[in-house]
UniProtKB/TrEMBL annotation, chain A:
Species, as recorded: Brachybacterium phenoliresistens
One Gene Ontology MF term: aldehyde dehydrogenase (NAD+) activity
Coiled coil: none
Full protein name: Nucleoside-diphosphate sugar epimerase
Highest taxon above the source species: Bacteria
Domain NAD-dependent epimerase/dehydratase: 6-227
Cellular component annotations (GO), alphabetically ordered: cytoplasm
InterPro entries listed in its UniProt record: Epimerase_deHydtase, NAD(P)-bd_dom_sf, NAD(P)-dependent_oxidoreduct
A Pfam match: Epimerase
Gene3D superfamilies membership: NAD(P)-binding Rossmann-like Domain (3.40.50.720)
Amino acid sequence: MSAQKVLVTGASGMLGRHVATTLRDRGDSVRVLQRRSAGIDGVEETLGSLTAAEDVRRAVAGMDAVVHVAAKVSISGPESEFREVNVGGTQAVLDAMRGEGVARLVNISSPSVAHLGTSIVGLDATPADPRRARGPYARTKAAAEQLAMAADAAGQLMVTSVRPHIVWGPGDTQLVGRIVDRASRGRLPLLDEGMALIDTTYITNASDAIVAALDRIEDVHGESFVVTNGEPRTVRDVLGGFCDAAGVARPHRQVPGAVGRFAGRVVERIWEHRPGHDEPPMTEFLAEQLSTAHWFDQRRTRERLGWSPRVSLDEGFARLADWFAQNPVPAR
Amino acid sequence: MSTRTAGRRRAEPAPGPGIPVLPGVDPVHSRTLEVRDHTGELRRWHLLDSAPFLAERGITPRGTLLAVHGNPTYSFLFRSLIREDIPWRVIAVDQLEMGWSERTGVTRHLQDRITDLSLLTDALSLRGPVVTVGHDWGGIVSVGWALDNRHDLAGMILTNTGIHQELGESLPRALQLATTPAVLPATTSITDAFIRTTIAISNPPLPADVARAYLAPYRGRARRRGIEAFVADIPAHADHPSRPTLERLAEGICEVEVPTLMAWGPKDVTFSDRYLRDLVARVPHADVHRFEGASHLVWEDADVAGLVARWLERTFGASSRPARAVSTFAQQAPEGHVGAPIARLAADPAHRHADAVVEMGEDGREPRRISWQLLHSRVEDIAAGMLAHGIAPGDRVCVLITPGADLTAVLYACLRIGAVAVIADAGLGVDGLTRAVVGSHPDWIIGIDKALAGARALGWPGRRISVARKPTLDRAALGIDTSVSELADAGRQMQELGAPLDAPWPDPEADAAVLFTSGSTGPAKGAVYTHRQMSAMFTAVGDTLQLDPQRGLVAGFAPFALLGPALGAPSVVPDMDVTRPGELTAQALAHAVDALGAPAVFTAPAALRNILDTSGVLDGAERAALARVPSFFSAGAPIPAPLLQELRVLMPAARALTPYGMTECLAITAIDLEGIEAAGPGAGVCVGTPVPRVEIAIAAMDALGETTGEITTEAGITGEILVRAPHVRDRYLMLWGTTDTASRFEGWHATGDVGQLDAAGRLWVEGRAAHVLATAEGLVTPVRIEEAAESVPTVRRAGAAAVGPAGTQQVVVILETEADHRPGRATRPRPADPALQEAVRRAVQQRAGVPVTAVFTTRCLPTDIRHNSKIDRARLSAWADATLRGEPGRPL
């Protein structure tokens, strides 16, 4: 495939950065857009906000394709903030693409856009549904995916949505960092013994899948794909794997799932009024994520994208351990 | 409440005036029309009509299914009949005063309802072929329509209904109360108790929206008056206006010769098995399927529509064919009446006084010895006594007797006169046994005291006969007619009076026995054998085991006690609790062997470990007895070679043979220790080559584990194992759908086991077809995963389970470890420690080629009680499914 010009939004995050470097390494010319410098060698950096139409237009201009990763991915906070970034930002990208005549978009979404709070056991991607998605993040991402897919359906753009599920890897401060931090302080409970089966995605596999979607977009536009490692494990094994890699004790405190969900609901409300510096320790959404099964049927994703994970879960844990060996968790 | 319903109606497209959108019902199929009823007035009917559904798909209907609901449901009950694989026009009516049809205020008796229905079908210009479908009291109305419209009638489908009401007492108790004038309006119309009760008894419980749909047309007392009138029309008294109609129908149905299907939910307090029994007696050619566990609303509880689709196809479709037993496709065994050797040996002066049956006494007490002559006269006496007592050829006799001389005599007496022996193992447990006994509709129960007490307490049907003579008081308490002793006495007296047993041997094609499966794969099923198949079965087992009649056998596994007399070989029952075959001790076995000299030995696979574990206490004589055993058999589950090698130390002269078979075909293949060693390791368990007259084939499977229809005998193809033999069961008892599934490859019995043939023609078994895991990496059998996991040194035994939908299933392994294994009840699994998990994952990935999603340990894996060796994988999967879904605390 000849080199193309690709804009990656949100390259300061782990996934955006990984996509940008993967594209760069194979010879594409890459431009990134985010508020603060991402400091990635060999890519063109534009600073700006997703919510500023002109910033976005400037970034999109002259590109062949866009990979839209940027989003507010917190698990709590006022819904208006999520809406502004996730829905407004996606709208800005779509408008800019239409204005600048850039036709290809890989929209990064989340399986939670179709997560109804019940267990997901081996299902393929179902349509995004903002009315039924749980929590502000999922609701706004669902609305954003609908917007993006509508642009495809209208024949204006070629859009495919990729929904990586629980992306993690070395240097990840969002998920692994927080889990390890809480575990090291003995504040990571296991809901319902942590027996629910969940899918996760090692970072390399997630960015590979996104690149594959970009390369195959002529065939797969209009479709949404859940992307995972395809190796569901119990919550306790996933959390345990992170903790083992970081050299901290595995979580052992047990909390009934219903208690966790209730506590999460209370904490969520308090946080709305008295936001702290950190994320709240538990939200109802997180409690649900950690106590009900959500793993997916990957057959269509793998077949349509011509992609399969390169890094197994256990290989991922080993790489994570290597990273922690270089960057040890401070002893408490 | 009504305002809310009205609000919803405004919001969504309504299928008709006042009719809300109902779950699972396309409003297009809902229609209303006005037709004159028996009073001559125009009445508004509501019905479901699948004509638009068929037209849309370009399907030309083969005929019409005319479905009539009972009380207090409506056409909604039959919504599942509208489906692509039923190329019949479905017309499901709401009877007048019911459902969404008109409330007219007219009291309608049974005959009026039949007339109303005929007037409706005239208005619809319904012409044959018509198959009527009825449920509850609608079943009676549907039969009335069938009898009045015979020229159009092609078939009948009856579900949880009853055509015959005995006067007074026999009315179902729940309805007796409801029909009491003081109670009737209170339960049926003033409140909605009657309808709520009806939908509440569904098993499993109805989804909330379905329950709401059943209640929807009956909101408000005025709309419920039809329910009350319907109940009041039950003709419980001789002078009831509907009584003559009911009696006409009850007699008329006996003359109907069209194909008939009866589908039943046996957990019905109203139309219990008693009504099914009555219907089967009236329509003996009917195909019957009892959905074990399903309740009165069988259409909700079980896939009745799926059964109907298959039945219509088999009965009226292009692929319709006369049902022919699998055994008729096989090479036949030598003919002979079952039990004939008993008479032969009793007549032979050389054998007459030799032992036929020996029961070892408890704790070294004197054994009970029965000679061939004694056995023969006992069988003949009991047979004559049975006939005199009114037990007729064809009657079903449930035999609940501990294996031993009494069971043998009673069984052969049944076989002699052609009474159909029903044999269910106590290993099924009380619930399982009750299901088996009740579900086999016995006319008689012959049992030990414990069984009869159970029969009394649990209300099992059938007249009761004890083994030993009972004092009058006990007789009354247990509700006993007579005893086997008295039957034998009566027979002997007749003989002495010059009237010996005068009965022809039964027709080889008549039913001989019903053998219940172990229930390790769902509710126990009754496999029905004809006399020909039964005779072939005994011959096959004898041939398989190369049994020497001179030496006899030790029946360490109860069912084999019945084998000896059929083959003319003496048999010994060791001192043991026959309901716990796994607890047979080495000492008890040695004593039993000694009683005959050098007999063949049969045990349950689970007993082998115990025999080895208890062999330490054997003295010299006991060891010598075991050393004389010429052959040793264990049936029920495959035996690992290492165990056989250990046993060889104890029985060095014995050829150790394990047959592979099942209740539906007892002997399929056999293999000895040398054969196992020659086969070496491979996929699953090598069970050897087919025994005489048995053919084996493999039904290929697709990626989801479903058989494709292709049959092969090629080596190396894994699929469902098919067998053909003269001793394959005739059918399953009152399980038409199950028989159909097991016979779906014409001329073959689909075993439900999965495996492959190798280049040497040996069969390898890899577990149950239903347990095949359809992972994203392809099909894999549990056995391969278990063997891989068991290759980890600290693992004692492994069970594989799957979670998730076919095609993307995830593998879960549950282990007993050497360190933590505790025999006994299965305990709730705990997550395995990370090191063990990793070892198991690696082993399974390497040897079976699939990833493992989770690994657990338990003190003891659940096993099937009867065999005490088959891991209950279904139970493991059910536990894993709930737990890994995030439903904690579930016991295994």
